[in-house]
Design a protein that fits this description.
It comes from Marinifilum breve. By secondary structure, the protein is α+β, with helices and mostly antiparallel strands. Helices cover 28% and strands 34% of the residues. It contains six helices and seven strands, in the order βααααβββαβαββ.
Amino acid sequence: MQILENNNIRLRALEPTDLKLLYSWENDSSIWEVSHTLKPFSLFVLKQYLETSHLDIFESKQLRLVIERKADHEPIGLIDLFDFDPFHQHAGIGISINNREHQKKGYATEALETLCDYAFSVLQIHQLYCNITSKNEASLKLFQNQGFEIVGLKKDWIKTQNGWLDEYLLQKINTTSL
């Protein structure tokens, strides 16, 4: 098995052919609250992003990968490392299973486990963190089941159309790193 694969999923680099898919997912306003997006992305901007997505994580400070099913190579979501700090050896992590018919089938668990293993063993990251709103119970459960611990609560952190939401800060420490 390859390092960026698990039983049912493969994490792969973005391809130029992913432009329309990325455009559709990034402009899905139903997930903007989770992604902290305030406006749509243009095809032009996303094309520029794809043209630089080949940059090394040490240069760009981020890594975005497509989650695809191994059985049929269907793209089902995205997983990211961001705010990568090679000196302090930490990074943020985020995930989205964009095709709703593929949610609650274990793909997010496999993708998160696979990227955590890669971050800790290959990139030698000491800790990963994520921010999750208090109402996002599915994501809280996903990350906690993968060893992330709640280490803080930011009250009234996220403004929504329906009011303010608290946001949890979760961390996972690589206990095998120096």
